[in-house]
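On clarity, I found the account of how folds are encoded harder to follow than it need be. What matters is that the chain and its backbone geometry are given together, residue for residue. For the editor and my fellow referees, an illustration may be useful. For illustration, here is how one protein appears when written out as sequence plus structure tokens:

___
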Amino acid sequence: MSAKQLTKRTATVASAGALVAVGMLATAGSAAASPAPAPGEITVCAAGQHLALVHLPGRDTTTGLVAPGQCDTLGGLGTSEQPEDIVVMGGDYSDLSEIGRESFRPSKGAVVTTYGTVGDLSYTITHG
């Protein structure tokens, strides 16, 4: 099956500050070598000059807060075939904003990679 890639532009979200408090600075891996999607996982990589995270509103959880050039993986998401909403966030410590909204299937996994600089952010999502 081929990977599906979508690109979105930025939009500010008032509740972004609360999501920053939930996230943790991640040092799990390099964004230069984004991993392939794995079942039961969602990975976020910050390939630009900004912080990034993914919020899963249906689970009331987020990935770790990812530093520029790093990746973080949230695992243990199960094998459900049902789509789940995600919110892609990016920015800096004082202004984390929504970049876009997508959905993914935990059974397939996904990798979200953010690009650009604060004020001009975009992302791609690769579904497993």
Summary: Residues 16-127 form a domain with the Immunoglobulin-like fold (CATH 2.60.40).
